[in-house]
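User: Continuing from earlier, I have the next pair ready.

Assistant: Great, send them over.

User: Here they are, in order.

Assistant: Folding the first of the pair now:
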Amino acid sequence: MNIRRRLLSAAALAAVTALGAGTLTACSGNSSAATGDGRLDVIASFYPMTFLAERIGGDHVHVTSLTTPGQEPHDLEISPKQIAAIDDSDAVLYLKNLQPSVDDAVAQSSVPTKIDAASLTTLEAHGNEVGGHAAAHDDRPGEESAGKDPHIWLDPVRYAQVARGVGKAFEKADPQHAADYEKNTAALVKQLTDLDRRFRDGLAHTRSKVFVTTHAAFGYLAERYGLTEEAINGLDPDSEPSAARVRDLEHMAKADHVSTVFYETLVSDKTAKTIAHDAGLKTDVLDPIEGITAKSRGTDYFSVQNANLKALQRALGAK
């Protein structure tokens, strides 16, 4: 299946590309944790990284998230206090190219263990397609820049790859508790493998393979399970679609038997509801799990992903 995803804006891409490729470094000795209680002090950039750190670290880590619940992570501008906290921590776990201010702070910090989740799996660049037809015929140089989609955690297989890398980094940073980190990582990877199986089985037979979202966050998930994501906006959830894009989506919805326009919990649903009304479609939530709030359909990554699976099954007419 082709995955139709819009790219980062040229300005945003330039900002993140300038930061360079991701790296993972770790100290080899025992950590003198900044918490003062012997635990590894970990700074995580936003919820999917916080979740990994807490599940893998267990009782041996103290985790602080840079992004508060309900805050749109793409918009994060970290404070001087947070920059100091990164410097004082034992490890930082982040996803390069999602939050440029975090990338800058990590690059300039002296934190002994820097874990870039993007370096632990494969990221892909995708062009944009509209109206059910690929834009491959448009070969004008520079018309569409190659950008890397950062939403790797929505694919359970890629997220498991990241989990394994985080576990190894924790083992290296805190060898005294390496056995526990290894055990916790294995348990988490098993859960992610089970989740992958549920998605694979649950979406194997559906009336439609196309779904519409307001934010191009689900391309990896779509690719994993043979679906096609049509995004109203690009990778930037606050961008506005053009009138031509809206018309294309309305035509595509009819051609591909689309029933639902999905919106997310941390961004306004106004655009989704307008397009759904004009095209005679329903709306529903597909959560990119960038943060857990009272509005989330679950209390952690797994419960929200299970809710996402059910929403996709309803929208796609799972048999």
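And the other member of the pair:
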Amino acid sequence: MAIVVYGAGGIGCYVGGRLAATGSPVTFIGRPRMAAELATHGLRLTDYLGADLRVPPGEVRYETTPAAGAEADLVLVTVKSAATATAADELAGVLKPGAVVVSFQNGIRNGETLAARLTEQRVLTGMVPFNVLNSGGGHFHQGTEGALDVQADAALTPYSGAFEQAGLPLKQHDDILPVQWAKLLLNLNNPVNALSDLPLRDELSQRAFRRCLAAAQAETLELLAAKGLEPAQILRVPMRRFPTILRLPDFLFRRLASSMLAIDPLARTSMWEDLQAGRTTEIDYLNGEVVRLAEELGRSAPVNAKLVALIRATEVDRRAWTGAELLRELQG
């Protein structure tokens, strides 16, 4: 049962690392920089519940070319969304027919992109609902709760036990699209968090930043209603109630939504990490997806469009925003 993680950065190293640490044969494929880091330090996988798993340097198989995936039975694709088409073309040249490929990526359309190119493999759409912080030195930390969501398919049966043993059970869904949109609604906080330059818990503790997220979510929910799509309930509260809860004064929010603040103090968003590292963000596949939905419906999405523009500007010229500044910008 050969498992390959393709595009092994933060999410890929964490998910694949937990599988490897609990006995599954995992090959990581990614950048030479990460290969060198793990060859020196190995993998350390921690989470907000206190888990602390390790894979020694000599036991981490990290390759840098697509050819290393030739014998894979299961491939977990964790590349950034902009690299999905390239990854699909690379994998199409090496994967054996019948291999199971799961997209564990942000955004809505990555599974479709993979399936269009990997016609001899079984391609499934998945979703990682939690945040992973790359702390450096091979240490990856899960800071928020959640299981792995994936499109239901009998092809996953041989692997379910391995994920369960790794502490990452697969939650299968007959219709994955409402789940993807629910996750995207949560990910609309990625640019707010990145622009705040604060840990997630600190950012969500401030009403002004929550109102920014509420505006982006409310705009998206209106568009989804016009499309006739109801996002899945992936947390304790239905997604349609989130904007109202987020707008509450701080003392009421702390009382009524304390679980939303039960976040590891280390937790950050991947978009914040990308800005810190000088990388292009996934903003076009998060808030940009909302803008595309609005265009399909003949409508507009000014709040999400503004967040896209602000992140693109910040990719070039870094700055941190206060909650009041960002809220005024979005309201304007």
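Worth noting for the second one:
The mean pLDDT is 95. The longest helix spans residues 207-227.
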